[in-house]
């Protein structure tokens, strides 16, 4: 049986401790908001996986429906939705993002 | 842009609201294709309201997204939200 888009997303966020749905790739983001989240994640040094919604129309709509969130990027940590660019940026600025990674046992690759 | 302000004012009774049309900075980008006349698709919005008291960030944003669901359906593409309670705003403004 074909995997539904929701199953695929659930599997992604279960398998990858830090999973970012974005436009473009970590190396070549194709949207300023996605680029900013990648920059923040790179700065924190945690390993993360990305999925490019621009390469997959089903995923582009599917992730919005799955999260009930109208925009991309979307960051998941240990299967939980953290937020989009605004929330991730704010959490980074206040130190909450790194605290969240610590609490969830996600260790910076450079540490 | 007016519709965004109206929906937020009607439902959240904000003590402060600022809306900035940021669409110009995104001209030519794929999100602008098929945009309604006027091409208003990217906004930065600051809302200070007691409606956010006790709500986590994601919940605050969901509240605003729900109010603006019709705008998302009709071409609103990106919405940058800064959502604060009056107490948080006072702390930030006073800092």
Explain the overall architecture.
The complex is a heterodimer of chains A (111) and B (95). Chain A is built from 5 helices and 4 strands. Chain A is of the alpha+beta class and 111 residues long. Chain A has a domain of 75 residues: 3-Layer(aba) Sandwich (Glutaredoxin). Chain A has a 4-stranded mixed beta sheet, with helices on both faces. The longest helix of chain A is centred in the middle third of the chain and has 13 residues. Chain A is globular and about 40 Å long. The mean pLDDT of chain A is 95. Chain B is of the alpha+beta class. The longest helix of chain B has 11 residues. At the A-B interface, β4 and α4 of A face α2 and β3 of B.
Largest sheet of chain A: 4 strands, mixed
Q: By helix and strand content of chain B, what is the structural category?
A: alpha+beta
* Shape field of chain B: globular
Instruction: Give the overall form of chain A.
Output: globular
Main beta sheet of chain B = 3 strands, mixed
CATH architecture of the domain at 5-79 in chain A: 3-Layer(aba) Sandwich
Beta-strand share of residues of chain B: 15-25%
Compute the number of strand runs of chain B: 3
Helix content bin of chain B: 25-40%
Number of helices of chain B: 4
User: Which fold name fills CATH's third level, the topology of the domain at 5-79 in chain A?
Assistant: Glutaredoxin
Low-confidence stretches of chain B: none
Topology order of chain A in helix (H) and strand (E) letters:
HEHEHEEHH
* CA-atom Rg of chain A in angstroms: 13 Å
By CATH reckoning, the class of the domain at 5-79 in chain A would read Alpha Beta
The span between the termini of chain A is 42 Å
Report a brief summary of the structure.
Chain A has a domain at 5-79: 3-Layer(aba) Sandwich (Glutaredoxin), CATH 3.40.30.
């Amino acid at each position: 049986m074909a995997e539904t888009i929701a199953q695929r997303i659930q599997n992604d966020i279960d398998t990858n401790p830090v999973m970012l749905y974005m436009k473009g790739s970590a190396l070549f983001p194709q949207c300023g908001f996605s680029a900013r989240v990648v920059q923040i994640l790179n700065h924190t040094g945690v390993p993360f996986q990305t999925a490019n919604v621009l390469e997959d129309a089903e995923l582009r709509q599917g992730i919005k429906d799955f999260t009930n969130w109208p925009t991309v990027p979307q960051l998941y940590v240990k299967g939980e939705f953290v937020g989009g660019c605004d929330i991730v940026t704010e959490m980074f600025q206040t130190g909450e993002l790194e605290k969240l990674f610590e609490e969830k046992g996600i260790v910076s690759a450079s540490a | 842009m007016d519709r965004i302000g109206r929906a937020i004012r009607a439902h959240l009774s904000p003590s402060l609201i600022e809306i900035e049309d940021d669409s110009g900075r995104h001209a030519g980008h794929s999100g602008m294709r098929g945009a309604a006349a006027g091409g208003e698709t990217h906004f930065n919005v600051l809302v200070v309201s007691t409606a956010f008291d006790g709500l986590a960030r994601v919940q605050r944003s969901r509240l605003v997204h729900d109010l603006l669901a019709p705008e998302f359906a009709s071409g609103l593409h990106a919405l940058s939200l800064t959502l604060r309670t009056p107490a948080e705003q006072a702390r930030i403004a006073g800092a």
